[in-house]
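Field reference: "sequence" (input) and "structure" (output). Example, Nitrogenase iron-molybdenum cofactor biosynthesis protein NifN:
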Amino acid sequence: MAEIVHGRKACATNPLKSSAPLGAALAYLGMEGSVPLLHGSQGCTSFALTLAVRHFKEAIPLQTTAMDEVATILGGAGNLEEAILNLHKRMKPRFIGIASTALVETRGEDYVGELGTILRKNASLRGTSIVYASTPDYAGALEDGWSRAVAAIIDALVEPGGAIGPLSRQVNILPGVHQTTADIEEIVAIVEAFGLSPMVLPDISGSLDGTVPSQYQPTTWGGARPEQVARMGQALHTIAIGEHMRHPAGRLRERTGVPVTLFPTLLGLEAGDRLVSLLMELSGRTAPARLRRQRSQLEDAMLDGHFFFGGRRVAIGSDPDLLYGLAAFFHVMGAEVVAAVASTGNSALLERIPTQRVVIGDLQDLEDAAAAAGAELLVTNSHGRQAAERLHLPHLRVGFPIFDRIGSTHRCTAGYRGTRDLIFEVANIAQAGLHAHGPGDFADVLPGEKEASHACAPVAAG
């Protein structure tokens, strides 16, 4: 069991975490025809928007209630109402997801009640799904905001008490914020291989997957439709991925009675086997030949790649669920996690991470721990690139944001195929750092050692 160490620094010198409102906005982007709305100042939204655009390389329809000094003191209900009406008139969204910020949460207004008043007063809004989630910046990080937003969507849109029909083949999928668009596509393909019908919430694989619409779209293009979300209570089962999805999965189970299975991670052979076993049980079918072959390919990749993992010292910094999945992956492959830094301590999985201790801190903590432990690989988001340069370490980019590489949203690490590809990626990083030996390597060898080394060298013919 890992020791959890909470940092006591006065400030984060190189922050690791992204804010909860941004996590909520990313979840809202997984709804079709959506516009996320941050209730706070313009600065809060512009910073979040910059990170999202740089990561996804897409247009992000993130809006703000633009709170100023006067509204902060006298109350922001007017700004909230004006923003909703403007968005409804100009962008015509099907879904508006509202996330609070520290600015309005600190004041302590009843924004849920005020939102209800706004909806009752404006009949024109009745065809638009509007959801509010409390996500102050000072409480939690990216995972927490995503979790609260998904729970708010479930509470607002899912029809309660849906009985499972005898012919129901739907399986609800609640992906975590650490799943990429490629991860979600792979999970959907695995579920469909068993003749089941996946319903993903939120589904960024349909809205942030890099497709280009035929005409300008002011809202998200693709994602989960509100009418689909309403019918999640008719599903056969719910699969949630990541500890931070335990709360929304629990809310869905309480509201509908649909049973839930939570997977801490879908990275690794064992996790893939657990998922396939569950789907076999739900569908009554055996695993298809394609998945059996992918499993065999993963076993071969583990055999081929373990030479480059064995004994390698790894430092990882990320959000808790991603940290747990990556640490378990490296541990199984024979590497040693010598430094682990989490963005927040709001996860029961942190104690199960295979390392001596987990620090709740920032990228400076990761850099210091990696240097002290003699790490050979740094694993974190793009903000860790300067630390990797200073430590002269290879840098495996994971999590959010990744803005100095293209195609990160299409990297798959879920299931057999995703795990296989990650093994290849890490092994190739290790191979790229191996020293190519040549005649010049003997330049600094002592004369006696040089003669001995030549005596052992083969004699060329002729």
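The longest helix spans residues 289-309.
The chain has a mean pLDDT of 91.
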